[in-house]
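User: Run a structure prediction on this.
Assistant: Running it now.
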Amino acid sequence: MTFALAAVLLGPPGTLKAQSGETRQTLVAGGVARSYLLFVPSGYQVGRPLPVVLVFHGGGSRARAMTTHTQFTRVAERERFAVVYPEGLDGRWNDGRGYGASHDDVAFVRALLDTLGRRVTLDTARVYATGISNGAMFAIRLACDLPGVFAAIAPVAGAVPAALTERCAAAAPVAVAAFQGTADPLLPYAGGGRGASGRGEVLSAQRSGELWARVDGCDPSSELEAPRDSVRDETRVRARRWTGCKDGRAVVLYTIEGGGHTWPGGPPVGARVGRVTRERDATEAIWAFFAAHPRS
């Protein structure tokens, strides 16, 4: 991490005191007022480093919806980390596919981390990002465009945008846990094409995993775990893991056979986007993965 970016994350300690619980915060980035929801666990003591998870909503959604959809706040209170739900302009993120390209969301996240670093003492080895759909691909973009900042990312229903392939292939190592359904009607599991959303090409789930495995110095081969017993919801989850990664990193792809454009373990969202698997709780699995993979 460069000194300048480290300073962005750390900021002047104690400049602004964050209160426990959830608050809506605003900042100005690129001359535009931006907002986000910040949750700080109860009993937080200023000066004690906190891990932080950034949770990005999908295209057309809002930050508030992600609080209820993922239940990350509940996990954050139990496990003692901060969680941030940023708000996209016009409900979208500039994820590298030309979607939301009128605004610089990477600069917004830089400013957000700067501001957050003055409200709480961040554990700079434990800064993470996740999201769904458009938000998932923006989390991927952040790992590629802000090297050395994020210890791990967890895209849900989102793969590496084809336009970012070279940039991401040259990115700094980052642990990755990805979740993608084989029956996703909006983002093709097999990659290519423009998908039903018509918002730019993506790599396949497999190629996305292989890209991160190369970035992280993992063995080129991967291991496919046996699925858990079915919970009779017409889905099945198979975990493919790349092992032997450098510095304790990991890459895992959770393939939800029969799963749609959905958050595993989340609420039902309608037949148009497909099934929600009950075999995995993505929020619990993501935090367990994040907790096991600080930045070295």
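The radius of gyration is 18 Å.
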